[in-house]
Design a protein that fits this description.
Two copies of one chain form a homodimer.
Chain A: H1 3-11, E1 15-19, H2 26-41, E2 45-49, E3 67-68, E4 78-82, E5 103-108, E6 119-122, H3 129-139, H4 146-159, H5 170-181, H6 186-194, H7 199-211, E7 213-215, E8 220-225, H8 227-232, H9 243-248, E9 255-261, E10 266-273, H10 279-285, E11 289-290, E12 294-300, H11 303-317
Parallel strand pairs in A: 1-2, 1-4, 2-3, 4-5, 5-6, 8-9
Antiparallel strand pairs in A: 7-8, 9-10, 10-12, 11-12
Helix pairs in contact in A: 1-3, 2-3, 2-4, 3-4, 4-5, 4-6
Chain lengths: 318, 318
């Protein structure tokens, strides 16, 4: 479907639930906040329900506190699932969706999107779901407020690595320019995203840099973030989202891996690539997924076991 | 003057020298390379002469090796000085300029530009001098090659902090989009600038993050890069140019300070500000200087003594 058709579908509903994936990132939070805000501008009721809370680093986004983590079935006729490749990734919030009574509308940019939902707007060329929400807002003839523009630009910036990843297209840059002209404050967003790290965040990063290792003749750089390191610095492991891009910043590395010990027998692995290795494929070997340059997987086992297993596989596959 | 008038002035000359400021940064190198390349596209002779060599991190820029550091007077009728606020900043290359026989054309975006030269194109709203060279190239009706576009985009990116600083405007983003459409590879440039750190670079950064301290109730973040740390990792202290921006990235910090032990009884201090404290004024107290958001000073003494003295003064002044 097109942005216009999704806009038409949204116009038919008055009460809409918005949700996204578990462990939300900047784009999933921003695209939910922006979509709900645009729907409210049109006089609709919109509620956002997510399984997981908003990570601290995104709590600068206007309206983040209205994202509910209570799993109560809302009185709605439609559910918009944004930035989410498959129903499993919705987590517990998926249980609130009854497809018989709710139109399930999916808006996403992941190549791994499996086409779930009644109607879909999927553009895998877009930098971010926020880029798509911007287009839909224009088809809905909503004149964006400065706050809405700031939220959308934040999502574009987080998912494009601050316009550094290869998903940054001329369209992305022009959308960012238009959002600035609607009042989005790029420098303020940059300060929130890149210059407001809690001291403990940098202390943990310092430990990871000191522990950094390479494999596959330097083509893979990796490090493990253990519960022990996190505890020592009072750090929430879920706040480490962008650490893996630092891991990848080593000269010669094509793939960066960050192993995060969740503390419940699960190790989350973040995969990042400079573009010549498809990490979506690597993550899929372990039941995960994502994009060509950014993907993730969850494995059972100790950090040592998971690290060994994944490194060996990646060394063999690249 | 306007970009059109500068283009008309350039069209009159057949042999042109291009130069810029001492200690060249990404924008000064890129704007020189791009301008010289555009002039050559028009069939003109163009040479680039700088006092100082191209830093290693910018040696990915196509054509960097044609920048000469030999102080030989060229046979030209015009000199273009780009990205340079005053004649003193040209350094030794200024001695090659004879205003009686050469038209001195200045293209710059610094607020501190003192208006030197026969004709000037100064736009202090531009993110970078490369943004201005782009405009001039369009007035000259040059269809940019992919290489020229890549060079221009590199300069825009380095001077805007990768589109993160407040000098990034909608015009900057649209110029970047147009350059991508001319073949500039944004992701490749990002990789060269931000994802090719030698491993020792990250190890040193890891140590600095672990050592990071705050003062003045968290308003100042600081750390010392000692000879001992540098030696341990085989690291050249002069390669630490961007480290201070990491020091400033602490939440709540308004000023970031990096103390670099030069090993000859001198400690260089880098000052960075988020914009609300004038670090030019702080550096001036110690005989240094710079800009509101970035400045430096050199002090005699041990790291411990210099650190103590500077921190105490900064705590008192802000």
């Amino acid at each position: 479907m097109t942005a216009s058709e999704i806009a038409q579908a949204l116009e038919k509903h008055r009460r809409i639930m918005v949700t996204s994936h578990v462990n939300p990132d900047g784009d999933s939070i921003s695209s939910q906040l922006a979509l709900a805000s645009v729907l409210k501008t049109l006089g609709k009721q919109a509620s956002i329900i997510d399984q997981d809370p908003v990570p601290e680093r995104y709590r600068f986004l206007p309206g983040w506190e209205f994202i509910s983590n209570k799993m109560e079935t809302p009185n709605v006729t439609a559910v918009c699932v944004v930035d989410c490749a498959n129903p499993e990734r919705i987590g517990q919030a998926a249980e609130l969706i009854t497809p018989a009574t709710m139109e399930l509308i999916v808006i996403d940019h992941h190549v791994s999107n499996d086409g779930f939902g009644h109607i879909q707007y999927i553009d895998t060329q877009a930098s971010s779901t926020c880029e798509l929400i911007y287009r839909i807002s224009q088809k809905l003839n909503v004149k964006l407020s400065a706050e809405q523009a700031t939220i959308l630009l934040s999502g574009i910036m987080t998912d494009s690595g601050g316009f550094r990843y290869s998903n940054t297209s001329p369209v992305t840059l022009r959308t960012a320019a238009l959002l600035m002209e609607s009042g989005a404050e790029l420098a303020w967003i940059s300060e929130q995203l890149y210059f407001q790290h809690p001291l403990r965040h940098l202390k943990v990063l310092g430990q990871l840099f000191s522990d950094l290792k390479t494999a596959a003749n330097g083509k893979v750089s990796w490090v493990a973030l253990s519960q022990e390191i996190a505890r020592k610095h009072g750090f929430d492991i879920n706040d480490s989202e962008e650490f893996v891009s630092h891991v990848l910043s080593v000269k010669g590395a094509e793939v960066g891996l960050l192993f995060k010990e969740q503390g419940n027998g699960i190790v989350r692995v973040s995969f990042r690539s400079k573009g010549r290795v498809d990490v979506n494929r690597l993550a899929a070997i372990f039941g995960g997924g994502g994009h060509l340059q950014a993907a993730g997987a969850r494995l059972k086992g100790t950090v040592d076991d998971v690290t060994k297993k994944v490194i060996e596989t990646v060394e063999r596959e690249i």
